[in-house]
Amino acid sequence: MQNTATPTHCPYCALQCGMNLTPVPDGTVEVSERTDFPVNRGALCGKGRTAPAVLASSVRLTSPLVRSGGELVPASWDEALDRIAAGLGRTRAEHGPDAVGVFGGGGLTNEKAYTLGKFARVALGTSQIDYNGRFCMSSAAAAGIKAFGLDRGLPFPLEDIPKSGCVILVGSNLAETMPPSLRFFHELRENGGTLIVIDPRRTKTAEQADLHLAPRPGTDLALALGLLHLVIAEGRVDEEYVQERTVGWEDARAAAMAHWPEYVERITGVSVPQLRETVRLFCEPESAMVLTARGPEQQSKGTDTVGAWINLCLATGRAGRPLSGYGCLTGQGNGQGGREHGQKADQLPGYRKLDDPAARRHVAEVWGVDPDSLPGPGRSAYELLDALGTDIKSLLLMASNPVVSAPRAAHIEERIRSLDFLAVCDVVLSETAALADVVLPVTQWAEETGTTTNLEGRVLLRRRAITPPENIRSDLEVLHELAARLGVEKGFPTDPEEVFEELRRASAGGPADYSGITYRRLVEEDGVFWPCPGGVGGAGAVDSVEPGDPAAAPAPAPGNPAGLTPGTPGTPGTTAGGPEAPADAAANPGAPADAAANPATPEDAAGGPVAQRSAAGRPTVTGDTADGAHPGTPRLFLDRFATPDGRARFVAVSHRAVAEEPDEEYPVLLTTGRVVAQYQSGAQTRRVAELNAAAPGPFVELHPRLAARLGAVEGDPVAVVSRRGRAVAPARITNAIRPDTVFMPFHWPGEGRANTLTNPALDPTSRMPEFKACAVRLEAVRG
Ligand code: SF4
């Protein structure tokens, strides 16, 4: 066992905070600060600090389990793997490959997400694969692709935030979801910038804002349109920018002009003076940003809602300018990378579209298969789960717990129970794993090496710091063994670096091009921003990185304490001579800013399919770093967008109501979200004593007026009833929420499961369910 510190990253959210892990002789693992990593500079939230507790947890799975006589009982690996191969194989033989489903997670490393997608399409031959990231930020991804031709959570590093003039945070409670990121917003305000928070609740994040707008849940689209209306009416449109860098303005303008401020006030509950003040604060500084999170995205009109916020950025000339623009704060640890490499229903590695013939040919060549053998796009996450037990008879599930996290969860639980066969890979017996026919215990973050891509598009190396317990295997080993049992002996390596090398080739030339990234570079440069094209297998030799290897520790250059390289994020203010500096190469030194002028392929020159283009526009760039490797791309769109003509697209959108408006029977809106001490479905964090003590269970947050009407006092059990079911949790009474809205966190199963109530109405583009607004009634629960 190594006893030196290994620099690595947190297993949880998309911030991917850096931390050092040191094994202790008593078998535990110590977390210490890793101040060199620029995202968190040593700070960790309680979840990250206590993450090692799950490694040594007494409830950790220590053996494969198989169902026998109705019970899950320990079994050998061979028996468990044989059963899975037989279960999936039988379904495939009897009902065809699409009767087998695969469900992944945004917590899987890039290597695992890539291999899972390949396993589904090559070893199983099924089109039915999607993942829980569909429930996370798929609306922002769809809107980003529509507007910019490319989706990368933030198109700039977090370090740009403090130097901006104004940030509008829409539906993000980052004080609870990713607390270390708050420092960027504190610095923003210290530097004289303004923070505006939009949230129906006065959250801990909203408390730190200069201005808090509390719209009715599900009305963010109308709010953005009202702001754009005022931008136009007050003559604040950046006409030159709109003319030169966008298309579609006239239609978007007309749609916004139909949303008078007074009309928007009636819809949203945000007053006209507040709308005017927001426009003033956003438009007056030289630079400004809009950052969205789950609030506007988890709606049945999430894509249009995000599109409306992007319109605001485009009309005011913000997108693709230094210290400005639109970004999405992704949620899960590898929410970004998890959607780029093939576990999404409609995607191939490199963020290529599955129905694009050229993409299919490229990836099929890397995989050594016939492109025609690759299935087409499958169902989206909710639709896949909803088809369990009917069209889909067997399911392999990794890194997800839909019994708690899916909308209309009681129905989804029933669908899962109706499967012919369910296999789950997990570290603990989650609520979904407890329903499985076979459960495989897999390695955890600190016990394996792999890459993740954080919310900035920064590809990172999570390093193995400790040896896994006996009888535990990695997800990659599981897929290798299952593929072999299904008759595919080759093509499923178990070494993460070997998988990454293949991923580099598969992603080469795609929108999310990782081909210039190597494990060695990730260590030396503290992460590399994609797109990073490069000679695969060329520049940047790939060396193995061992746990605790002192040579593996990042070595900041003298006088460069953050360890920045020419391609990593300094700030435009420091590296380019200030915000007035030219908005392209100077702000992004070494980045391929001249992509428009240097089309790499005939398709590029012809403005060919966006899915086949690197965002940077050229697949190979040399001479940017000392060894000739591409430096990565911290900032996107500074000279052109990733559309065929380089211009961003306005979308003409109009307000529409939530899918389920309150009525006499269900008069209140429910919105759901997170608390600081729990993560996602809570499968891991609910098993950490310190976190459980801080957040032991669900609650119903409601306004005193609603509580009085109900006759409830603080702590009284309250039943929340929707058309899909009933959940009961103690009342938490506060003025920090609108009187027409109640809030429940969704981390818990059982009686207080918030997702029993939520509405699976889907966004037509992203297929995102409407987690953020549904109609409910409240009932007092007596004695
Ligand atoms: Fe950082 Fe997120 Fe981990 Fe907390 S959960 S330590 S914010 S990466």
TrEMBL record:
Transmembrane segments: none annotated. Residues 540-635 are annotated as: Disordered. Residues 3-59 form the 4Fe-4S Mo/W bis-MGD-type domain. Keywords: 4Fe-4S, Iron, Iron-sulfur, Metal-binding. Residues 560-607 have a biased composition (Low complexity). It comes from the Bacteria. SMART domains: Molybdop_Fe4S4. This is Molybdopterin oxidoreductase family protein.
